[in-house]
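Render this sequence as a predicted structure.
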Amino acid sequence: MPKTSARLLSLLSLLQARRDWPGALLADRLDVSPRTVRRDVDRLRELGYPVVATKGPDGGYRLDAGTELPPLLFDDEQAVALAVALQIATTSGAGIEEAAARALNTVRQVLPARLRHRVDTLRFTAVDRPAARPDPQVDSGVLMAIGAAVHASEVLRFDYSPVSGTAPAPTSAPPTLTESPPAPSGEAPASATPASTAPTPPPPPRRVEPHHLVTWGRRWYLVAWDLDRADWRTFRADRIAPRTPTGPRFTPREVPGGSVAAFITARFRGIDAGAAPGAPVGWPCRGEVLLGLPAAEVLRHTRDGVVEELGPDRCRLVLGSWSWPGLAVAIGRFDTDIEVVGPPELASAFRNLATRYAAAAGPGTPVSPPPDDQPPPDDQPPGEQRPPG
């Protein structure tokens, strides 16, 4: 009996490893006769595993999807990967935190002692950078409804709630991924419209062709073709309230930029991903400076720039940002001598910031060097200090 049980587990592991298995190949891998394979398949079916027979010259078996979830079999690496993924899922913002925590406890209880020890040594706490407001949570049912429409290529209708309590971002702040384009020049903002005593009718539901459900900065977004505006838009999933039923099926379009990753990255940088060939690409503001630091030191802290070595303690840095003040601030974090090569807008941004910083410091403020008793962490540029404590 123990030999039969071990053989059933081996057979189940093989059936999960690939879609179709010829019967003769299964018998050879298990070192048994084809008749024994047939009997073992019948035993798996009695345990609830939907193993179906495939026709053909060789004949074989396939582990099909069933109506219930039978016991699963994972190898050591899969079990550890599942436990780690469930820990990460508790910070996904997808409204599945409690379910992920319960699933992690279930998986841990059935793990062998050797694997449970490995999982316990991998316990960690995900800590996000503090934000002015907590990240919005998305209902898992909303994500499932959006995902189903994307998978079926069906028009999605939904109500899109407005953002409340948002203040206009400064010019140096990065743009957020939102479906609403900026107002045309000279157009009055909505707040300038005189208040009316008549109730405002609710806006009509949005009608889109959903293409991709993506995450960016711990937020969920829907990338879709807006049928009423005839343009590509991004919608925050936490503001979407799907309506039923969905609309007709559609033929998926090609996302601008060639991929959803390129499209989302371009939107974050404020760039038109569908621009004509030969149009400028990359960050809207891009500048070149000379820094009094070794190239290797600058390269460690530059994720999206070009660094060229000019000497032992001198290098050239080409970097981009969403605004000229933002680019100047990013370069100033290196806390070294800076020479602006171009363009003039970058030099002007440095000049304006210098004036503001001098005014903020006040006249006669002594300048003290930063403490150097501790080196900066690897993810911070030289000169940027750790928080106290």
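Summary. The first strand starts at residue 21 and ends at 22. The two ends are 61 Å apart (CA to CA).
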